[in-house]
């Protein structure tokens, strides 16, 4: 029973990491390429940096490559976004529309601490090295 539970946890975490990483990458794709209903926002340095972190970091997190550092940077970017974009409109995330930034921030902070898990490119590369 314990092995089954561990396998379910590993598989579920991998699926969640993949989906959230890809969703985050979509935010970056909107800003970088103007796709998925977004507009390219490369005229502002902060937005360009955010777009690169979101697109590149989202893909790295999704596939589990350099996961801890990518997740740490993504978490910091979301904290920065929350305090610079959302917090000026009110303290509570539900009021200032910052729930997604907070959720991404804390999920990525968890991933930075936990790692990519067993089903990841990080683990695959570590076995071969």
- End-to-end span in angstroms? 32 Å
**Helix-strand category:** mainly alpha
Counted beta strands: 0
Radius of gyration: 16 Å
Nearest-integer average pLDDT: 94
Major sheet size, sense and barrel closure: none
The number of helical runs is 6
Top keywords for this entry?
129 residues; globular; mainly alpha; 77% helix; 6 helices
Description:
- This protein is mostly helical.
- It contains 6 helices and no strands.
- The chain is globular and about 45 Å long.
Question: Short summary of the structure?
Answer:
The protein is mainly α. It has helices at residues 2-33, 45-63, 67-86, 93-96, 99-114, 121-128.
SSE layout:
Elements: H1 2-33, H2 45-63, H3 67-86, H4 93-96, H5 99-114, H6 121-128
